[in-house]
Amino acid sequence: MRPVINDAFIVESEILDETREIYVYLPPDREGSGFAFPVIYLLDGHSLHNVCASFVQHYSDRGRMPHAIVVGVASTDRLRDFTPSEREAYNGEYGGGGAENFLNFLSDELFPVVEEKYPTRDYRVLIGHSYGGLFVSYALTSKPELFRAYLACSPWFSEADNVMIDEIGKQLQEGYEKTKHFYLAHEPISSPGIEDRIVKMKKAFEEYSGDDFVWEYKRYGDADHSNLPLKAIPDSLDFFFPGFIQD
Q1: For the segment 80-108, what is each residue's pLDDT rounded down to a tens digit?
Q2: Between 131-142 and 162-174, two packed helices, what is the crossing angle to 10 degrees?
Q3: Cβ atoms 227, 219 nearer than 8 A
Q4: Type and span of the H or E element at 86
Q5: Cα dihedral 221→140→236→186 (10° resolution)
Q6: Is 245 within the bounds of a domain?
Q7: Residue 1 maps to a domain
Q8: What is the C-alpha separation between 221 and 219, in angstroms, rounded?
Q9: Which of 4, 29, 35, 167 shows the smallest number of beta carbons within 10 Å?
């Protein structure tokens, strides 16, 4: 089996005022092929890159999805980067509110590097888990033009995020210029209110989505918070790329 990390580089981010490590999985036989590939941007790349890249490699080699590039972004301060507003974290830490900055980092600093270095198509996917799943939802509401497909894996919504969930409903009614695919997944969550808010977002999808917003929801009753990505990532890849051969 080929290695799942074919390239790596760093970005000296002026927006974040720090250095970010980036890990990249590349499809085989890309040099001189004339092909361009969808790009999957993966949050928490330091922990999830090998997981996601392995599924992409396995599925694309077997015709379940097109060949794709995976760009894993290593995390430094998840509370800061993935939350749209300040809040108290599960460990009692208080902070956050840097999601806008982090999204600007992706669009203004990371995308140009990736799209200069590799043969990319205009089809970006965003995958995030927990706080990362919250950020995925924020990216849809804040700059929907950046991504075509989304996996919000157990988005860790707080009460402050109800405003954002309401905004998703308004946005769905207005419609999108290009069709979106959104996969919403979670495990049984015991933290008060979080699962209720996930279901609230699902209900917005049910009530307001049109033909330009294709979505799937799954509650993984046999999963826990740590292993949910192992189940949801492959399912979402099948969902994002319909029309390919299924085993």
Answers
A1: 999 999 887 777 778 889 999 999 999 99
A2: 40
A3: no
A4: strand 86-88
A5: -10
A6: no
A7: no
A8: 6
A9: 29
